[in-house]
Amino acid sequence: MAPVTCFLTYEVKPERLAEFEAYGRKWITLINAFGGQHHGYFLPSEGASDLAYALFTFPSLADYERYREQSMADPVCQDLFREVPTLIHRNDRTFLRPVPNGLET
């Protein structure tokens, strides 16, 4: 069972960046509560002002799928899902797997 990391790219509404940051802080807590490890949100600083990123890892794809099912029934998650159209134009998910260091087999 290999861990899976979800890399999210967001096209955010720049005028709503403060609200998006608050939204991200809530998801960090939720992902961790659902058994994942959130690595943080990364907001625009220099360059493009409408791109933000997030990374989080679950122990396996099955654990990620379980989180997705549970989040659909969670009232806090549902409130956050309703905020998406006001904050985000679109997002893309990419799933990654870690490469172990040279000392691991």
Automatic annotation (TrEMBL):
InterPro entries from the UniProt entry: Dimeric_a/b-barrel (IPR011008), NIPSNAP (IPR012577)
Record-annotated NIPSNAP domain positions: 8-100
Pfam families in UniProt: NIPSNAP (PF07978)
Protein name (Swiss-Prot/TrEMBL): NIPSNAP domain-containing protein
Naturally occurring in which organism (per UniProt): Deinococcus marmoris
Source organism phylogeny: Bacteria, Thermotogati, Deinococcota, Deinococci, Deinococcales
